[in-house]
Design brief:
Helix 4 packs antiparallel against helix 9, helix 8 (165-172) crosses helix 9 (177-213) and helix 9 (177-213) runs parallel beside helix 10 (225-232). This protein has helices at 3-7, 10-27, 29-32, 64-100, 102-116, 120-131, 135-162, 165-172, 177-213, 225-232, 241-274. The chain contains 11 helices and no strands. The protein has a single domain (10-30, 57-274), classed as MetI-like fold (Orthogonal Bundle), CATH 1.10.3720. The longest helix is centred in the first third of the chain and has 37 residues, at 64-100. By secondary structure, it is an all-alpha fold. It is elongated.
Length: 275
């Protein structure tokens, strides 16, 4: 996967550009937001989009634009944190199983397979019902859903890399198993895992929004995209902007992550074919 090849991929560039703008907006939310996202104003109930309220106001008179900015900030942290935690667990697990094989693979991956057969959203709801609600718990619940997926991808990739000639050469030179796994197998097996992680970021945002919509994720008055969708459902006819803009924020972000994932997958496949 060459850097020059990545910079020529239009879909990847579009995805990275969209994500860059969204991340920048999330980081600068306190400076960009024109109003307090939790400020209630009875004088602007269900007010339509205007210069002072770009996305209008909701049923409590709160500025929708400011709330979307801060809600996206939370969604992005949960998405990145959950996938990052899943990588920290899944990559070492998959690497050890894929490189070692045999009974080590069997012992490590059978419990992972058992988690994979469970419905993702149902598993998240079950964990939250035990651990409690909130953004941090949502992050952990999503990580539990995703780490088996990343472990399986890492295992499959590591198994392929382990059979390549340069790994046999390292063994012949007397290099130990840990050195081979970390210095040779891991760097060459990470490509598919990175692709999968980029795609899971989009799914993570959807799951976080779904859990917040059900009242199991971020709790009010803290803004959340899913919570905004839930609160706006009763005023969909009178104030559709309270539903449209949070929904667009989710859709655009998921699309951007998918574009990045597709671009990375294409280059990983090209690199594998060339090798």
């Amino acid at each position: 996967m060459t850097t020059s090849g990545l910079t020529r991929d239009r879909r990847l560039i579009v995805g990275v550009t969209i994500l860059g703008v969204l991340v920048l907006a999330a980081v600068l939310a306190p400076l960009i937001a024109p109003h307090d996202p939790e400020s209630i104003d009875s004088a602007r109930l269900l007010r339509g989009p205007s210069l002072s309220h770009l996305f209008g106001a909701d049923a409590l008179g709160r500025d929708v634009f400011s709330r979307v900015l801060f809600a996206f900030r939370i969604s992005l942290v949960v998405s990145a944190g959950s996938v990052g935690l899943a990588l920290l667990i899944g990559v070492p697990l998959g690497l050890l199983a894929g490189y070692s094989g045999g009974w080590v693979d069997l012992v490590l991956m059978r419990p992972v397979d058992m988690i994979l057969v469970l419905p993702a959203l149902l598993l998240a709801i079950s964990l939250i019902s035990v651990l409690g609600t909130g953004s941090s718990i949502t992050l952990i619940a999503i990580a539990v859903i995703f780490f088996p997926i990343l472990a399986r991808v890492m295992r499959s990739s590591a198994q392929v890399v382990t059979t390549l000639p340069f790994v046999d050469s390292s063994r012949a030179r007397g290099m130990g198993g840990f050195g081979i796994a970390t210095r040779h197998v891991l760097p060459n097996a990470l490509g598919p895992v990175v692709v999968q992680a980029a795609i899971l970021m989009g799914f993570s945002m959807q799951i976080e929004a779904a859990l917040s919509y059900l009242g199991l994720g971020t709790q009010p008055p803290t803004p959340s995209l899913g919570l905004m969708l839930f609160e706006g459902r009763d005023t969909l006819v009178q104030a559709p902007w309270a539903e449209i803009f949070p929904g667009l924020a989710i859709a655009i972000t998921v699309l951007a992550f998918n574009l990045v994932g597709d671009g990375l997958r294409r280059h990983v496949n090209q690199h594998s074919s060339a090798a």
